[in-house]
Amino acid sequence: MKTTPLRVILAKPRGFCAGVERAIRCVERTLELYGKPVYVLRDIVHNAAVVDGLREQGAVFVKSLDDVPHDAPVLFSAHGVAPGVWDQAHERGLHVIDATCPLVDKVHREAKRLAEEGYTIILIGEKGHDEVIGTIGWATGHIHVILSEDELANLRINQPEKIAYLTQTTLCVQECARLSDMLKSRFPSIESPPSEDICYATQNRQRAVNDLAPQADLVLVVGDQASANSKRLAEICQRDAKASHLIPCAEAIEDTWFDKVDSVLVTSGASVPESLVQGVVAHLQTLRPCTIEEHAIVEEAIHFSLPEAVR
Ligand code: SF4
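A: This is the predicted complex of the input protein with iron/sulfur cluster.
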């Protein structure tokens, strides 16, 4: 183990985005207004520490609306839901508080519009991700989901003259640009999203890692395996052959990682509380003396207002 000071570089921006802050605040406000328990369909955001914290305050996380009593408020998560879930909630007369991130909602509305206009939609995204499941639901029968060159090569489109593409909000910017370029060359008439679908928070966190990782021997990405934008940050490092670890919290750190390391970049995904990052820094300080510096690549000043029901 080295005894020289460890240079700890904190990437900025990191951690909570405006959509996650809004979703968590929605649960807290619902608890304040209605008392516990309040029900949340699926994980409000993809971070176990956040979910556990809200559970302790009185939130009950359920996989199905069937598990929600008819007189209790229920929140939809930041990733949004398909219209069939809204229909089911209305049929049961449930009081819904919609914590869908406005930037996810934008993609869902765009999918709906394109489907109504008869477009075939290629969605660049992860099959099975909550946001993608929701987007498919808004354009049932019109959407093909791809995330690789092979999946693009295997696409069979009946009406290639009326086709558009959309993307999940939390993709790797470079990988998505590569796939969308390939889509455009295979389907020259394909329509692009009216504005960027990959959200500002995903782009900024990736930019910070791209810019700062070359200064560090090792990168620690704080985030859960279920968090798409946290995984993307670790994948950027893997793509550039940079030593890196995706860890949910300080307890996952193996001290031997730092045996030959002089500098470490620490960042976190958009669903990760700052307390987990500070826990990582505190753990590093137990290993050897550290110098701590924060490098801001972009300043973020985006906030989303709460839904009227909990304002
Ligand atoms: S990562 Fe982007 S799309 Fe997802 S909640 Fe945050 S701001 Fe919204």
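The mean pLDDT is 96. Residues 83 and 134 are 8 Å apart (CA to CA).
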